[in-house]
Write a structure and sequence with these properties.
The protein is α+β, with helices and mostly antiparallel strands. It has one domain. The protein has 1 helix and 3 strands. The radius of gyration is 20 Å and the shape is elongated. The N and C termini lie far apart (about 65 Å).
Length: about 70
């Protein structure tokens, strides 16, 4: 564990995030160099879809193609 310098204000990060290529993207702060991972989708859509949501999407698609 490291001690923080009480005279140094906390960084207000300015994230530069890689282009989406999977469920997460790496990011680095332009100011302090801290690295972090960021999700590329909103829960319930895209990469985070559960099996139930995928099944429902297939059912809706099948119904649409029958019309």
């Amino acid at each position: 564990m490291t001690e923080e310098d009480p005279q140094t204000p906390e960084c207000e990060h300015h994230w530069v995030i890689e282009s989406p290529n999977g469920p997460t993207s790496a990011g680095v702060c332009k100011t302090c160099g801290q690295r972090s991972e960021f999700k590329n989708s909103v829960q319930g859509s895209g990469w985070d879809r559960s099996g139930a949501n995928k099944k429902r999407a297939r059912q809706v698609g099948a119904q649409s193609s029958k019309k």
